[in-house]
Input
Amino acid sequence: MARIAFPHDFLWGTATSSYQIEGAWNLDGKGESIWDRFSHTPGRVKDGSTGDIACDHYHRYREDVALMKELGLRGYRFSVSWPRILPQGKGPLNPAGLDFYSRLTDCLLEAGIRPLVTLYHWDLPQALQDLGGWANRDVAGWFGDYAAAVSRRLGDRVHLWATLNEPQVFGMLGYLVGQHAPGIADPVRYMAVSHHINLAHGAGVQAIRAEAPSTQVGTVLQLPPIYPRSDTELDERAARTVDGLLNRWYAEPVLVGRYPQDILDLLRPMTPPIREDDMRQIHQPLDFAGLNIYTRAFAYHDPGVPVFEAMLDEHHRVPGAEVTAFDWEIYPPAIFESLMRFKDEWGDPPVYITENGMANEDRLLDGRVEDPERIRYLTAYLAQVRRAMDRGVKVRGYFLWSFLDNFEWAEGHTKRFGIVHVDFQTLRRTPKTSAGWYRDVIRDGGYVWDEESP
Output
């Protein structure tokens, strides 16, 4: 048995995103997003669901904040819907959209909950996608204007800002693989997209600092450790390549001011158009880095892949490994390994865990949702967070994913990550047993962990 304790000022919270919970997809002047278009396209979402209603947080936010307060949350990470603020992505502002996020912010502060605002969590205005979206270099300027509008309105009350959520994920799944909105699979276009995403981050930081100079600004990266599928030299080289494409390509420009040279060398036939002053814009001083982490990944050598000769192995399983309902391996050291990279490789910034949690087969029975599997998951992962802190990583807070069961992108309503169960027919909220456990951890500043328990 071990006592896992955290500092008294550690920021305990939960996280959500606009499209996944808000609903009200076409109300009060909101414009269409790429996820509105994508989810309304037959065959794109596993169960045919959409985010049209989702959790109806747009109308139920006061109820949700009251529940957050009951659970003792000290922080709440939410994202702003770009097309709710700028229906066409640029041009005239929608006052009703800004008013919603202003009311939400005030409600959180009245409840003693500190907001962390993410400006982009994947719901690009469709009007900008019609102009090329992230493949259009002008998107950096459009994002900067949007960031200025939101931080101008909320910057007197919101003191933690993140520009983008998981740029490598929405870039790759949206433009390289085509599994997420806007559903494009084009490697050459993706490389331009990746650079424009990094440029937009820099423009967003500059805009926030201009409008709200006393606030703290960061970004959110998903950085899974990449393991070779075998101990062969070829697989080890493949793992390094995949890590470069998936992790270092996004972390290094933002945090240390360069693209990884080994990946630039590999990319020569597809090098994105990088201009002389671009890195100066991308590499802005940051107050923190956000880490989203769930598991590790595996890579292997594949000579059939042009240029890279490396592939992710999404189906590799270590014998005896437990998996979540998303079929992701439960591997607690992943969070420790990713945190250590910030200290050892990327400038040692303060770090917030901005997402961590598990999808589980949760069932509402007799008015209760028992989810001991999630509690075991969280105890093991948080122990690894404490381990990283003991090694000197400056972890400032932890935002559990997610507060509510929600619309899980291309999986629709088939995956439940929340510590609060949502009945998607009635929209009734029911805290799960993990919510009570998390409330106690926040109250006590830690928990007792049986390292021998499964």
